[in-house]
Write a structure and sequence with these properties.
With 348 residues, the chain is an all-beta fold. The chain has strands at 2-8, 20-22, 25-31, 37-43, 48-54, 68-73, 76-80, 84-89, 95-100, 108-111, 114-119, 122-127, 132-138, 144-151, 154-159, 163-168, 174-179, 191-193, 196-199, 205-210, 216-221, 227-233, 238-244, 249-254, 260-264, 267-273, 278-285, 288-295, 301-303, 309-311, 327-329, 333-337, 342-347.
Length: 348
């Protein structure tokens, strides 16, 4: 992997870019130095802007997240702010629908012709063909952790209350719970591999549940309270889970029986799956973050040619950098947003 291109976005300060690839085009949000908030579609290989969509709501900077989603569906891309959920045409950037509804740190999931959006402890169901809300449902938890997972007509939603809910896509009723010990937030969406529902949490366990009964199949201990992140590789039958903050570890477990394949003492942030052999993430050492590759087979950490060294401290040239950073990937490219307001694009 090597650096292909650096995009200077002209952002006023680091903002959450919400990047997503559409083939060789990268779509992202930026709050410009002139105060304009735009969603921009950029041709990576042609090095030109294809379109910009101006957001008419007031936006703020200073690392406050403005935009959520970036889900592609039938020639459209779906986004949400704290005030609305809307769709843009992928080719032109023109708005297709705009639903005025309050959301809070929402995440979006598409299943068929429906969009499911999280709003605190509520799921909002939207008919994408009609561009309207058709159902809403609140659950007896403090909050839901998105995005929800969709599989065979059901949604799976991690919660603040040490459990995952199985929910009907049709009526949004919960019909099964997958429970973690204690009262910790699950913290991350789970993953499905065959008949297993598997995932880490803030609790002291990574657990694989029987998807159909909700019963635990196996549990593996981890550090209680460590911040979880994970990659579920269903094709290879492996979960890669990271622990950060009060523990620094990345571990590979076989989903079928929980056998540890390898582990590495390292602080890896924003772990992301990019192909059958490799993940990427940010390796933290002291106050420095390095964008690296991680081998799925061995856990070896591999430097990336042309990746900048990023500092947690407020100092030049990364004075606005905040972790975790956002990563997007396509079949051929990987990109991440940097604290200078720049986006680095790498060839796989």
């Amino acid at each position: 992997m090597k650096l292909y291109r650096k995009i200077e976005t002209e952002a006023a300060d680091y903002n959450f870019f919400c990047p997503v690839f559409n083939g060789e085009r990268l779509i992202y949000f930026v709050l410009n130095k002139d105060g304009k908030a735009v969603i921009r579609c950029e041709d990576i290989t042609g090095k030109k802007t294809v379109w910009e969509h101006l957001l008419d709501k007031a936006m703020q900077g200073n690392c406050i997240r403005q935009l959520y989603g970036g889900v592609i569906w039938q020639g459209q891309i779906l986004f949400a702010t704290e005030h609305n959920i809307f769709s843009l045409n992928l080719e032109t950037g023109l708005k297709q629908f705009d639903i005025q509804t309050e959301t809070h740190r929402t995440e979006l999931t598409v299943a068929g012709d429906f969009l499911f959006a999280i709003n605190r402890n509520e799921i909002i169901k939207i008919d994408l063909l009609k561009g309207k809300i058709v159902k809403r449902k609140k659950y007896r938890v403090k909050w839901l952790v998105g995005p929800v997972l969709e599989d065979s007509g059901r949604l799976y939603a991690a919660t603040s209350n040490s459990k995952i809910l199985r929910i009907s896509e049709d009526n949004l009723e919960a019909d099964l719970e997958y429970k973690y010990p204690g009262s910790w937030s699950v913290g991350v969406p789970a993953g499905i591999a065959g008949d297993s529902l598997v995932g880490s949490s803030y609790s002291q366990y990574v657990i694989s549940f029987d998807k159909n009964t909700g019963e635990p199949v196996w549990k593996k201990k981890k550090k209680t309270g460590s911040e979880p992140s994970q990659v579920i590789d269903a094709a290879n039958g492996v979960i890669y889970h990271c622990e950060n903050i009060n523990n620094e570890m990345i571990t590979a477990l076989r989903i079928s029986d929980g056998k540890k394949l390898w582990s590495l003492e390292a602080a890896i942030w924003s772990l992301m799956d990019i192909d059958s052999d490799t993940m990427v993430g940010f390796l933290k050492s002291a106050d420095v973050y390095e964008f690296v590759k991680i081998s799925k087979k061995t856990g070896d950490i591999i430097p990336i040619e042309g990746a900048p060294e990023m500092h947690e401290r407020k100092e030049e040239p990364f004075c606005g950098f905040r972790m975790p950073a956002e990563i997007a990937c396509s079949a051929e490219l990987v990109a991440f947003a940097c604290g200078t307001g720049d986006i680095y694009v790498f060839e796989k």
